[in-house]
Structure formats: C-alpha cells, structure tokens
Design brief:
Elements: H1 6-19, H2 23-42, H3 49-66, H4 76-94, H5 109-116, H6 125-142, H7 147-158, H8 163-170, H9 174-196
Length: 205
C-alpha cells in the first residue's frame, strides 16, 4: 500500500473531526471547501450562480452525513467533487434539464491551446486570447491546491499580477511571495500531471 501523502493525512484528520461533530473543524471545513466547490460547480451549470449555490448546499448536507465514510483513498476535495458531480446530475434529472457531457480533458480546445501557448505577454491579440484560454483551464487545477498556493498562482497566471502586487495582496515581502510562487508552481505541476496526465508546459519557473 502506498504511504499516504501529508495532504491526505491532514484531510483524514479534518474529516474525522467533522464526522465527530467538532464545530471548529466543521467551520474550517466549510470555509475551505464551500467556495471551492461553488467554483467547481459553477463551470458545470453554465455559470448559474443560484443553481450552483443550491447544488453545493445540497452536497454539503450529504457530505456531513457521509463524512465518516471518507477513508483517504483520494484527496478530500477529489472525494467532495465526486459527490458534487452526482448531486449535480441528480438535480438536473429532477428538473428535466440537460447536463452537458464532460469533454475528456486532453481533447478540450482550451487545453490544447494552453499546451501550445506561451507564458509571456507580447501584446499581440492572439497571445491575449491564448492567455485567456490558459486562465480557464488553470482554474480547474487550482481547486486541487492549498488555498494560499491557489491564490498566488491565480493572481500570477489568471490576473496577470506582478510579484510585488501578489506580495501586497498576501501581506508578504517580495522574497516571501516569490517563495510561495515557487512552491505553488511545483505543487501545481505535480497535481496537474496526476489529474490530467499531461505535461503543464505553459507554467514556467
């Protein structure tokens, strides 16, 4: 059996506390995962915020009842996403709505464009379009990262912020922000490969 990663160990601990009725642990869990699940769901319901919120609320109710069954075979967020997918399908069936089939990630135009894109902004319109496509794809993988890593990478690659802007936003010095970015890039690449089995060549050091 493979040794559990530090993140899985942390996830198991949090899940066990929530399952045991620890209010502080539940508050931590809700604060961390509700917004991430909301963003995850929003892309699957045609950006209908009200519907996404309803689905995530329903998902959270299910999760609280089932939290004791989480064994850490996958990251907690991955487990939550599967429950959320099932609940999304259930809501769409109940309301006779058509749920779009998910496109295999390696066949998605945004992924193909991202893999062919450049990271530097040279001012050309086509580069700007490719950077926007990268942004859409990066958001998916960001959901699987710790919150501080996700925020730093989103500011850098999605919002196009400079290191100094990131530092100010995170209340850090420039050197500390650079360190966070470096660790976040490494974590992103590892998670990207693990999820999609594609080399993230569009993320540069």
């Amino acid at each position: 059996m493979n040794e559990a990663t530090p993140q899985v160990v942390q996830d198991r601990s949090l899940a066990a506390k929530v399952a045991a009725g620890d209010q502080r642990a539940f508050d931590e869990f809700f604060k961390e995962y509700f917004p991430r699940l909301f963003r995850f769901t929003l892309t699957r319901v045609d950006n209908n915020a009200d519907l996404a919120e309803e689905i995530v609320q329903r998902t959270m109710c299910i999760v609280v009842r089932k939290m004791g069954t989480y064994r850490g075979e996958a990251l907690l967020f991955t487990w939550l996403c599967q429950i959320c997918r099932n609940e999304t399908s259930s809501v769409f069936r109940q309301r006779h709505l058509e749920l779009q089939d998910e496109i295999p990630i390696e066949d998605h135009p945004a992924v193909q464009a991202a893999l062919e894109s450049v990271a530097a902004d040279d001012g050309r319109p086509e580069t700007a379009r490719r950077r926007e496509e990268i942004a859409n794809f990066v958001r998916v993988t960001l959901e699987h990262l710790p919150a501080n890593y996700a925020q730093a990478l989103e500011m850098k690659y999605v919002q196009g912020c400079s290191v100094s802007e990131i530092a100010r936003s995170l209340n850090l010095g420039n050197k500390a922000a650079e360190s966070i970015l470096s660790r976040a890039r490494t974590a992103f690449k590892e998670r990207f490969r693990a999820i999609w089995n594609i080399e993230p060549n569009f993320i540069v050091d």
